[in-house]
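User: I'm putting together a teaching handout on how multi-component assemblies are represented. Below are the sequence lines for each component of a complex, exactly as they appear in our records. Could you produce the 3D structure of the whole assembly as structure tokens, so the students can see both representations side by side? Please keep the chain order the same as the input.
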Amino acid sequence: MAATETFVGRSVLRKEDPELLTGRGRYTDDLSVPGMLWMAVVRSPFAHARIRGVDVTRALAVPGVVAAFAGSDFRWAGPLLMAWPVTEDLKNPPHYPLATDVARYQGDGVAVVVAESRGAAMDGAEAVQVDYDPLPAVTDVEAALAEGAPLVHEDLGTNESFTWSLTNGDVDAVFASAPIRIEERYRIQRQVPNAIEPRAILVEPNIATGQFTMWDSTQVPHVVRTAMALATGISESKLRIIAPRVGGGFGSKLQVYPEEALALELARRLGRPIKWTETRSENFLATHHGRDQVQRMELAADERGKIVGFRAHILANMGAYLRIISPGTPVLGAFLYCGAYTGEAYQVTLTGVFTNTTPVDAYRGAGRPEATNAIERAIDALARRVGKDPVEIRRINFMPPFTEATPSIGGLTIDSGDYHATLDKAIELFDLEQLRKEQRARRERGDVRQIGIGLSTYLENCGWGPSRVIGNVLRYAGGGWEAATVRCHPTGKVVLVVGTTPHGQGSETAYAQVVADELGIAVDDVDVLFGDTDVAPSGWDTYGSRGAAVGTPAVHRAARRVREKARAIAAHELEVAEDDLEWSDGAFRVRGAPDQARTIPQIAFSAWTGHNLPDGVEPGLEASSFFDPENLVFPYGAHICAVEVDTETGATRVLRYVAVDDVGTVINPMLVEGQVIGGVVQGIAEALYEEALYDESGNLVTSSMQAYGLPGPPEAPTIITGSHVTPSTTNELGIKGVGETGTIASPPAVLNAIVDALSPLGVTEIERPATPEKVWRAIQRAKGERA
Amino acid sequence: MTRISLTVNGQRREADVEPRTLLVYFLREHLGLTGTNVGCDTSTCGACTVHLDGESVKSCTLLAVQADGREVTTIEALARDGELHPLQEAFRRNHALQCGYCTPGMVMAAASLLRERPNPTEEEVREGLEGNLCRCTGYQNIVKAVLDAAASGARV
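Assistant: Of course. Below is the structure of the complete assembly, with chains in the same order as your input.
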């Protein structure tokens, strides 16, 4: 008998691809419905201004304009959802879809226009007259906390939203007695996520039933459904949110946006479908930003460089309002300022600060790239201080290998890990000796183009997450479980319904691989449905590297339950006891008589007709699972980067990059590698090119893809990948997560490499992003200090 | 309104358009050819790349009236008789797409590149696709796919 083909662990080509390659994938902006109107939002050109008045008269005179409203024309049932009050005393001024009295960032919505066409809506928006009284603005966290700073929310009397802290051990005593102490300061520049698909919304009302269907370019239709009910007062049962194909998110579509509430409310008010598609210029202003921290990182160590204490003080820019998880974003990194290292004491203090800037929220990695930057840059500074090689200092500080959950000094219980193993493998793939030799040669001959080598041996926490922990310990308002239903059609074809909302990850393919193996069928016989709250009513969507780590166990359990029900029917049909059956080669077989067998498609038909079921067994063959993990998962790895820096121009290029990651059990190596490479390149761009830069008045200066520095094919280096597997102990499949490892690991590897290249010139620190100008200035500064 | 007449994916089309209508919106909203995407408003991202008289252009930088009398090919016409085009096959084989939003433009730009340069080097592929942005893949597998399609010798 031929062995049945199995799929898990293989690079199965994606189910998603044929429609996306041929232009048949349907994104929200591709959709239209009869009678549809277009919406345009009037946005504040000022970072901070009192709104004296909004006059829509001229807009209403524009041909095609149907209606126009100011912020004060709306009465909301509630503000836009903010789901993570990280401290009890956190200050969270309610955020409504349009500003009424004060605009608080450039791009803040102040009025809305609805018209018969896209062009008319835009013309109408331009015709709205807003009388602004500009106010002083503040964009920088330190300036915002200074005495006399302009207040973003005047009634709060402060720009500080919250201070959150975590202490493990006697930090003061450890620091006081340590012979070596270092203190580093880093600025994590602000990022614009830049999913290539701009946000888009289409709401269709049914005025007879009071039901609303919203197609939405979102990562989180389930969260949007609840949030829309809270903002508009429309019952969740009357709301159907559909995320069709979504063109990338990177956290920027893990949000509840003003435009979603506006489109829904206008559809209700006008009784007609409303469509809105963001322009890229709007995306720069009105889609949330990421990162933006000022960090003070301290390490205490002995003379050998063995770390005993970690202390981080972080100022996190929240922007003008707290959005869905703005305050929680730095908290996601708060346990990682020790990296993969041991110590005796640990303290992190995070302060969330309001500024007159676009709200800051999750961006690929969310809090963890920031923490990784701090520890991975600081450990290099420590290495320089004690005269150790960056590899050696990491080795003496790593947690030893472990296969059972183990506590870290940062307060986590880590699932499994072998930090030496990924570092060993990365060094081997990188050919470290050869590159060090080349580096020495260039140093000796004083080459204009110097080589530097940088490491980042990161550890992260993801797979959001255990509901009891995230709710009770971390004060997150949502849940972290995931849901799946496996349903067999009479012919044995299977529909899998999942509560995650993939948008490029390839989860459809990976989930189908798991179901196919569990049921002994082909990947092509599994169709995956998701992203529609009527079709997949339960789930917490896709973000935080949870699609594989939390979604897959739910899928696996649902499929296993289907198989267990099938076992009872198979035993009945084969007239043997259930124990006499074994599952092998994709079928239930009678022990000792493997030709007497039943496959899942055979059982599916029996279960469907119900002609001959055992007593007490219900017809039909489907099962669901709600999986709530007990813990997070903890991917880690070692990334090594070689850069070449032109010491005359400051131009930097990545010569070689090796990423070795442990993401636990791998369902599809091709998908994992794709996530790693894409994330690493995004992180390299963060280190070298990208920055959302405000001027002193709060104008976003880098407000186009070109000005912002989004990398194209020529800028992207080739990434060499490797893997090591220690199965996670958090779920029965051993899966960790992979969606964010690249952006978490790579920036410090690149920055450490630049500092290494320039260290003979006396450079010890480089600002992010390390543009040619910043590199050149760092070189000049070091020369000046030496002169 | 201005009357235009052009060939799109081999079919003769006539339409009255507002003079300010961009070619990409004409394709998407008048003809329902939504495979061509819009990713920016500065002609930076290349998601809207189509072929105009056989050469790749960003359809957001052209007015529909500028395509009058000319021949436009979009992603919808690349696969023939239910068979993926060799470049589409190579993209799939090499995992050169994730969210898929830049993909139609990327494939059209790559097709034009290979027509001009059937056996490009890696550097030539990277330079040739410099006007097309992807946020998911880091470009590595896109470059691989284009080189793979070239090496497969299939006519593009």
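A couple of points students might notice: The two ends of chain A are 80 Å apart (CA to CA). Residues 483 and 626 of chain A are 4 Å apart (CA to CA).
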